Amino acid sequence: MNEAEGRFTVLRQSADSAAVNAIEHLVREATDRDLNRINVFDFAARYGVAEDRVIAAFLHASRLGLFDMSWNLLCPGCGGVLDANATLKTVRKAVYNCALCAAGYEATLDEMVEVTFTVNPRVRRIAAHDPPSLPLLEYMRQIFWGSGLALPEDSLASVLSEITLEAVELPPGEKAILSLQLPAEFVIVFEPVTHAAQFIDVQGEPTRERRDLAMVFNNVQAPTGTVQMQPGPLRLSLENRTALRVLPGVWLAGHQLHELLGRRKRFLTATQLFTNQTFRDIYRTDTLDLDQRLKITSLTFLFTDLKGSTGLYERVGDLVAYDLVRSHFSVLNEVVAGESGAVVKTIGDAVMATFLTPDRGLAAALRMREAMRQLNAERRKEDLLIKIGLHEGPCLAVMLNDRLDYFGQTVNIAARVQGLADSHAIFATEPVVRHPAAKKLLSERGHLPTERRAMLRGISGELTVYAIS
Length: 469
Hints:
The protein is an alpha+beta fold. The protein has helices at 2-11, 17-29, 40-47, 51-63, 136-144, 156-163, 255-261, 270-274, 277-282, 309-316, 318-338, 358-379, 409-420, 430-433, 436-444, and strands at 67-74, 81-85, 96-98, 103-105, 113-119, 164-167, 175-182, 186-191, 196-202, 211-217, 225-229, 232-240, 249-252, 294-306, 342-347, 350-355, 386-400, 403-407, 426-429, 450-455, 462-468.
């Protein structure tokens, strides 16, 4: 552990001490399972450390080689990992198919891409570093399912045994024959290593006539098919033509399986990581390739600009104005980070920032306005007059000028809405103001948004916007 101890010493210089202590304790004392695909929210709750500090600590720890960060494509239906990636640059398929759910999904960063952390094998070797060594139960728990599925800690074996008719471990090149009785239920033959599935719709009168079914596992994922059979005996022939062992099982697709797959919990999404300032600072140019365009279904954009900045330079001179503008940027950066957002870029005297939800963006806007008032009060001059606009909606994550950036109409509208604002009002669109948490925030703080219709440059038709005075 000497090399790791040195890295933990370096980690303490850049991350929260409580978070680092908790991570070091985990590495030394936790089970192998707990060190694989760590869910940062579970970790934060377990050790009583603020979530933002935990995320920042794991990001720094990954940069130091203590942990490996993984970007996993999750099936929205069953919570299974459809593809595990060491970097987002390898997320390139137009559609990711889930055999268990017999469905295809277009990758979206805020719904399908989870970010997890696994201890680096040079720090501590765990069973999950060698997936073929894991028994079926642990393979399903640690490799197949993602960190967003709330699997039972102690009763998973019992639940799986109740829904499993047969299961077998099949080495490379081997064959097996399973004999079983099909009940009058929907049955799935599922193999988690190759993500292959065969559905059996069992219905009708029971029969004593034996039916035969064959499955071949290879490196080409075949479409999930459905066959109809009567309740009764089945001879299932299985053949492994891959270079890895496979773990086929025959499952009952009843309420117990659906209940198991329906148990969900929070997980760290790619979008949430993109709105984390620590991530943007550490992985500034190492996130996407230049030709990638990844979808985000919902992100809140905040734009600010200083009103009359040209006149400010004329009134107080270049040096004083420069110091004032720098102070203003420092305050805005602090506010954005405090609301779990991230500054995407600055353009002249303007700031573009993102937040995971509208309420966070709105809270930041209110704090920004108050902070500028305080700075002006300290100077006894109204020099820093800030305009703020917010909008929420879908967008594309892209690389632009060696920086993670965003593209789309949502971004354009947010920028234009900022142009409507004056130095005393925040302007926000309907999706922001109507968001439940944002409505609650405004009500609690006594703000009554004033509705108006506005034409935005480059945007067709009128848009409903709200002035928050």
